[in-house]
Amino acid sequence: MNIKSYEDIPIVAGKIIDNIWKQNKNIFEYMDRKEMVDQIFNFMIEELTDKIEDWKEP
User: Fold this and answer.
1) Exposure string over 4-42, b if 16+ CB within 10 A, otherwise e
2) pTM of the complete model
3) What does the domain layout of the chain look like in residue ranges?
4) N or C: which end of the chain has fewer CB within 10 A?
């Protein structure tokens, strides 16, 4: 799912976080909380950037 409007952002972000967690759970278990959150947000920013289409709000 790509982001086409502001309403899509929480839906897509939730799916991205779920996928990141499933793919990296074993790695995250060995990190401290700050390190884990930093890594999740870095992955999330990359994924969200890739999913944003050229759209403009009215």
Assistant:
1) eeeebeeebeeebeeebeeeeeeebeeeeeeebeeebee
2) 0.69
3) 8-51
4) C
